[in-house]
Amino acid sequence: MFDGLILAGGQSRRMRSADAPEADKGLMPWRGEPLAAHACRYLRAQGADAVWISANRHPEDYAAYGTVVRDDPDHAQCGPLAGVLAGLRRARSPWLFVLPVDVVRQPGDLAARLAAAARPDRPAYARTSDGPHPLCLMAHHDLADGLQAFLDAGGRQVQGWLRSCGAVAVDFSDADALINLNTPEDWDRWS
Fold this sequence. Notes:
The chain is an alpha/beta fold. The chain is 30% helix and 24% strand. A seven-stranded mixed β-sheet has the order 5-4-1-6-9-8-10, with helices on both faces. A two-stranded antiparallel ribbon has the order 2-3. Helix 3 (80-90) runs antiparallel to helix 5 (144-152). Mg(2+) binds at residue 102.
């Protein structure tokens, strides 16, 4: 049993343009619906008991897809790990399956394989032939205190936190899996 967390709290800076100066990637339509809708459907299909969305802007829009959680004000400038911490603190299940809102082409067995590799004291994250996808991860709620200590000590790098708790990488060697839509060019290529 696990809850799902969609990370949609970023600023979407690389997606901004003269036509879209205030872009919010998770709400942008991709293949007919917002990315948040795709991510929510995927998490539910993977077996998530509840879907949480880390969103610091447009919470009323994201609420259509799951329960919105905001970063703790003390960690407002800590990047995506603040969203992970908020999800770990609020999840009802012992496990939290994390997925960035801009990751598409998810493997059908992502949650199952991450869950098989994770332990309460050791998260598991995805790696493809293109490199690590450290925010596609399965983490136990017991990791929340350690993550908070990492952030309170000034840590911000996701891979730094994963190294600090002995996280294991799970190989998904399909080069077309776990594609990030970070830029307008990515968006065009994978639409």
